[in-house]
Design goal:
Helix content: 25-40%
Radius of gyration: 25 Å
Oligomer: single chain
Largest sheet: 7 strands, mixed
GO molecular function, one term: transferase activity
Number of helices: 17
Keywords: Transferase
InterPro entries: CoA-transferase_III_domain, CoA-Trfase_fam_III, CoA-Trfase_III_dom3_sf, CoA-Trfase_III_dom_1_sf
Protein name: CoA transferase
Structural class: alpha/beta
Shape: elongated
Organism: Hydrogenophaga electricum
Strand content: 15-25%
Distance between the termini: 50 Å
Length: 412
Amino acid sequence: MTRPTPHPELPHGPLSGLKVVEICSTIAGPACARLLGDFGAEVIKIEPPEGDPVRQMGQHVDNVSLYAASILRNKRSVALDLKTPQGRAVAAELIARADILVENNRPGVMERLGLGYDALSERNPGLVMVRISGYGQDGPYSERPGYGAICEAVGGVRHMTGDPDRPPARVALATTDYLSSVYAAFGAMAAIRARAITGRGQVVDVALYEAAFSQMEPIVPAHDKLGVVPMREGSNLPSMAPNSSYPTADGGWVLIAANSQPTWRRLVGLMQQPELLTDPRFETIQARGRPENMKAIDAIIGAWSRTFDGGVLEQMLRDAEVPTSRVYTIADIYADPHFAARQMLQAVPHPTLGHTTQMGVVPRLSATPGGIRHTGPDLGADGVAVLKESLALETEAIEALIAAQALRTPSH
């Protein structure tokens, strides 16, 4: 497949022309707005004078947050103190000119600032307001603070993560925040599509616990009809075997997924253990999926896999057309030719570090691809330019905002 080339009428992506204001912190909201920005939307990020806490997260080089350089990319930073009336007034003016507002404050905070949807939509009836919170905008839990990890517990995901003989584990990544950000971006685009028909905007209500809960799709009807309360399966796929990580001679792990009957037969042939094909415990997909049989087949495959180094075993399985992969570290990813060919590691220029390597744009569009136009800006770096360009404020008015401590710029 040839590399995608931009459409000449959409130089920055298919969302060119959409104006987005982001009033968010940490992960789910900024990731949603970053996704919109990757595909060409103009994103103005309103930050408090101390900056989004994400600027303090992750690894730093020369006091530069590498995480912020990525998750704040393709955005313009305006540092406003929304506790001041002047700061709130400027935010309201920016939102009045926006297509989409993304916010992830606790329900009620925006209303107390005078920036609730009812007030904003009076001036801007076409506004789409994306609201990301732990438990949604209504319901008995709506005012609880909710982080992704907490909402995974409420959504049933934490109960399903880890080994059955150990306490519930967590994935050391913000999986629920990123899943929520994709739902939020999808909701924003659905609302923009509806606006094209009705002429009016609406609220997109995304709850972290519901995004987590959506992964429980097969478990919901099974509990209703059968009363099933499944337990953690460790590295296995529930009711499907062999599909797990298996040890190798060099201390690594290889994931083997022989889900279908033809693939299972190919794996058995590679293992040179034909008796497994007639063993009643392993003859069918359903039989292999029974808990006691899963343990048995995993033990047999594990005993076989640990006689080979990871790279050798991986190639043997690929040659036999058995889906497999070594369990990659980030170092493996940097060395992998497929990531390079798919542009999933991109060197993005940075004003003080030279460059940072960031993950590529997902998904890939063949005719109107997204792209990385610039790295995440310094706190408040674009405040003066945005207020001049978007609100036509004169220098004197901007200096008054700075004097009132409603606006922060890098030099103030």
